[in-house]
Amino acid sequence: MKLRTYIVEDNATIRENLIGALQELAQIEPVGIAETEDDGKAWLAAHSSQWDLAIVDLFLRQGSGLGVLAACRNRLSNQKMVVLSNYATPDVRMRCAQLGVDAVFDKSNEIEALVDYCIAHGAAQAPRPASSSLAS
Predict the structure, then answer these.
(1) Over 70: is that where the pLDDT of 130 sits?
(2) How confident is the model over 13-35, as a mean pLDDT?
(3) Contacts of 56 (CB under 8 A, 6+ apart)
């Protein structure tokens, strides 16, 4: 089963390379993208059960990834939020943990770890039974 993944990243080159790599290596299915905090929060709220993983950059064209993360604190238990940032300092990692982030990856040297995370999370996803419905 493909991991339905939403990506909040304002750099088009990084975003396209990330999507391509994760599709090839981790079998993700991109379900949407945002370049700003407002767009990310709006999509995730409007499609609350249509994603399994959100990958969020912290520094965006408008707003901050921290706002996107805070808006998703009450997500479903199987939905994962991860940060992919050039600024994965200990302080940033601590703030992300306070917001309930599942993992933080440094863009410069932890892309392979992100791929491994996506593979593991995709494998852990239970098949979605057609007969049951989630209350929203």
Answers:
(1) no
(2) 96
(3) 7, 8, 9, 40, 65, 68, 69, 81, 82, 83, 84
